[in-house]
Design goal:
Layout: E1 24-30, H1 34-48, E2 53-60, H2 66-75, E3 80-85, H3 91-101, E4 106-109, H4 121-133, E5 138-144, H5 151-168, E6 180-183, H6 184-187, H7 200-206, E7 210-216, H8 230-250
Parallel strand pairs: 1-2, 1-4, 2-3, 5-7
Antiparallel strand pairs: 4-6, 5-6
Protein name: Glycosyltransferase family 2 protein
Organism: Neoroseomonas soli
Domain Glycosyltransferase 2-like: 25-187
Length: 262
């Protein structure tokens, strides 16, 4: 007769596998980017090497082969999580979904079109960790010093960055760069709204954090087509800018003087 296990004990074969959370979650919102999935995943894996990480793709209602490409990446053994929106809800909604699902302490956001270089992520992560060691909650924003976009896109971005910087004073020369690294818990304090991904530096300052910029590589798109129009971004951005400025003026950060009791 086999003795019953003692109270509170769990047989070894019944113990669940405990997987430690990764240090870093790379969150990538995509829509119709099937040909860019495999190359970008391979670059991320090469760049991060021994850094414990996961890659959280959020498919924002793609109508091409993006779901199949993500399944293939998972089948190949990459640490890819694939979350799909039934309908397209926009880039900001996809970023929010990804950050909420992420398990890492640190978040790196990356555009899914291959224009951001994953090789820059370790340097931005190191800067963020150094800021944390100094007691600061910091968003490290990529700065595309040499942009590889069309002349019209660069021109409208310069205008938008100048207006935004003057109005919001967000201490960032290139808030539109998709490559950023920040603490997950900081992001979860932000108000969530459509197009918020363009204003993460201003929202960081509003939450009492700090913002620093690091120069990063920028590459031309070689596969697929952009899902965003220049005039669409410009017109929507004007309304968003007014809204974020209003949020900044209305924000109050209490200073805890005392916390008594258990």
């Amino acid at each position: 007769m086999v003795p019953a296990p003692s109270a509170g004990s769990v047989p070894a074969e019944a113990a669940p596998d405990i997987v430690a959370p990764p240090l870093l979650s790379v969150v990538i919102p995509v829509r119709n980017e099937a040909p860019n999935i495999a190359p970008l995943v391979a670059e991320i894996e090469a760049a991060l090497g021994p850094v414990p990480h996961e890659i959280v793709y959020v498919d924002d209602g793609s109508t091409d082969g993006t779901p199949d490409a993500l399944r293939e990446a998972r089948a190949a053994g990459a640490p890819v999580r694939a979350i799909r929106h039934r309908d397209s809800c926009g880039q900001s909604a996809a970023v929010v979904t990804g950050v909420k699902a992420a398990r890492g302490r640190w978040i790196a956001t990356l555009d899914g079109d291959g224009q951001n270089d994953p090789a820059d992520i370790p340097r931005l992560l190191a800067r963020a960790e150094a800021e944390a060691a100094a007691g600061r909650r910091t968003l490290v924003a990529g700065h595309r010093v040499n942009r590889r976009d069309s002349g019209m896109k660069r021109y409208t971005s310069r205008i938008a960055n100048a207006v935004r910087s003057r109005l919001l004073k967000d201490a960032t020369p290139d808030t539109g760069c998709g490559l950023k690294v920040f603490p997950r818990d900081l992001f979860l304090e932000f108000p969530q709204f459509d197009h918020m991904h363009r204003y993460l530096p201003a929202l960081t300052l509003r939450a009492g954090g700090t913002v620093v910029s690091e120069p990063v590589n920028h590459r031309p798109r070689v596969r697929g087509a952009s899902n965003y129009g220049t005039l669409d971004r410009l017109m929507v951005g004007l309304f968003d800018l007014v809204g974020v400025a209003w949020l900044q003026r209305r924000g109050r950060r209490p200073v805890i003087e005392r916390d008594e009791g258990p």
